[in-house]
Amino acid sequence: MRPVDDTGAAKRLESGLPLVDIPPPGSRQESAATEVAETPGPGGCWQCPSLPCGSRAEQEAEKKAPCPGLGLFYTLLSAFLFSVGSLFVKKVQDIHAVEISAFRCVFQMLIIIPCLIYRKTGFIGPKGQRIFLLLRGVLGSSAMILLYYAYQSTSLADATVISFSCPVFTSIIACIFLKEKYSPWDAVFTAFTITGVILIVRPPFLFGSEVVETDKDYSVHLKGAFAALVHAVFAAVTLVILRKIGTSVDYMLSIWYYVVAGLTECIVALSILGEWSLPHCGLDRLFLILIGLFGLGGQMFLAKAIQIEKAGLVALMKTMDVVFAFIFQIIFFHDVPSWWTVGGSLCVVASSIGAAVRKWYQSSK
Predict the structure, then answer these.
(1) pLDDT tens, 227-282?
(2) What parts of the sequence cross the membrane (predicted)?
């Protein structure tokens, strides 16, 4: 029922008129239309008939909110896909790591070009950012090649764990070039990471010549461990460059430079090494396709996880890469890691978890 105006009611009482509004002729249709327009819809109210309010709005907000833990699930799925991709790299032994990287660049290029055309970002980028994009592409692709070489040269677990030292180098390089704060806690995490890498590599000048004598493939292991360590440094520099660029450049354009520089670098390296050869086995060709698919899938799910979940929690769940690497190494290669590797892995993972927890704590203040 509509409220009655008090002033009008008083005048009608004084004049002896009834308290009912009698509409003038021809206004009945307009009144009905007005009432229909003012009638609240589902979930609306009389004050704001076109907008949901109260418990109805809260229910709709809850429906639109992402499922709790979905970001962590995406991170876990990303870690699994990256680990499976590294397993395929380890399985493909007849193809050089540089050639595997070239195939992955070609695969990603076929996907990036339509994306750039659709987003209308161009293929060159802003004039002031091109040098940074070029450095990002060269260093990022070099890091990829070194990591693939490490997978082929040393154990899957060792290469994965050493590559996890990247956050420590990122803190140091960002402190030098971006003037970011380097706290005592960062120094502690750095010490843990260096200790873990030393336990995994086991250099002879610290552990004696017995290590070389007991491990026949120690020289190959040392090359792979060194490649993984340089990969971590290059990846850290790449992250610092991406921080420098910020949001001024579309991320697709950044990947484009990475793919173009990587493919160029791979072609030059393969021409010098003379290692260019198509895989003879059909299974190896399938592995090459799967490496590109799983690598791309891992990047997509990781990017999605960062969008809907806190970075600290994503970094914590990302350590599952190490767990998957150990599991795959034992199941598919029947290679049980030594206690040195287990101890070094615990040190590196503890350093990564500590850094992630500290950032999470600082961001929650």
Answers:
(1) 999 999 998 898 888 888 877 788 788 889 988 999 999 999 998 888 777 777 77
(2) 70-89, 101-119, 131-151, 157-178, 185-205, 225-243, 255-274, 286-306, 313-333, 339-357
